[in-house]
Specification:
The structure is a homodimer of 173-residue chains.
Chain A: H1 3-13, E1 16-17, H2 18-23, H3 30-34, H4 39-52, E2 55-62, E3 65-73, H5 75-86, H6 95-109, H7 111-138, H8 142-172
Antiparallel strand pairs in A: 1-3, 2-3
Helix pairs in contact in A: 1-5, 1-6, 6-7, 7-8
The first copy, chain A, binds a DNA duplex (28 and 28 nucleotides) through residues 1, 17-20, 22, 38-41, 43-44, 47, 62, 64-69.
Chain lengths: 173, 173
Amino acid sequence: MSTEYILLGLLKREPRHGYDLAREFAADTTLGEIIHLEPSMLYAYLKKLEQAGFVRATIQTQASRPPRRIFELTEAGADELRAWLAEPVERTRDLRLEFLLKLYIARDDEPNIAAGLISGQYDISQRLVDSLSRQAADETDDFRRLVLEMRLEQNRALLNWLAKARQDVTSTT
Amino acid sequence: MSTEYILLGLLKREPRHGYDLAREFAADTTLGEIIHLEPSMLYAYLKKLEQAGFVRATIQTQASRPPRRIFELTEAGADELRAWLAEPVERTRDLRLEFLLKLYIARDDEPNIAAGLISGQYDISQRLVDSLSRQAADETDDFRRLVLEMRLEQNRALLNWLAKARQDVTSTT
DNA sequence: GGGATCATGTAACAGGTTACATGATTCA
DNA sequence: TGAATCATGTAACCTGTTACATGATCCC
């Protein structure tokens, strides 16, 4: 899943411990409104990322507080993140979550990568719109055509939105 | 999940056995393109529906073939199906799957229910569009506004599509 | 004194996916 | 003769959710 990658993205900005990362996903935060991540899952992902070598932990002891495990991105983790960020998503349904997460991470510290991401995504949706238009025109079954038209409308809407997103990214550069 | 309900919907047309129902979900069929249902899951659902009392099975023995279990809808199952069909979905993401399935079942034998379903769904999307428009106008954070605008575009597209779907249903009546 | 906060997890459960088991029969 | 079809399932697995455990400290 893509959830692991946002953790990599957040850790790229600065090393942090689990409890601190969990705050980022509280109900009323920007990330929290896109994705819900319970602390138990967060710690599970951090463990997984550590075992994969994408993240490394150092223990920070505190007076009168439980010790913290501070996580930082490794070189392998940074490579993994870069590859993920550059790649647009294939399936339309992944725009709502995975693409938004990529954009969220890319936007604020890699504007050129964000721009490339949006362009790549635009091309994918454009090709899908073309393909679906052709299929819908040929389709004789009413219900199947309805289904194709739904997907068509969805992807047209996404093209509109991606154009806006592109402006947003280029204007903040 | 909504998968159980399509089984009820298919069984409403005529009693059938599991293997026969499985054909409906093959890769190149109308239903198969919307939802993927492996035979193992299909049998599991049928078992669940039987235990819930929505479906009842009679065994049909055959010469030189394994016996079939023919499933038919019970009164309780018919009630359950009716209630599900009449109810539009709340979340936008459920349009792609659950709403399409409701429409698929309602369309061919209950056109008035299908029309009501579409109207109800239209109202929900309309209210969402209004609410999102207001939120987006007030939102100062660029990224949050982008997220709201994505949802806005998606729901506007759905309104367009629902209008088409309404015409389709009323024209085939 | 009692609840929220800090900080980390484990354990049980629920849901769906994949792989496999069975065994006869039809078709190329 | 070997693959596909008929007809039914079981079992293992993977992923994510929910509930709970621990124990101190800060704030009201």
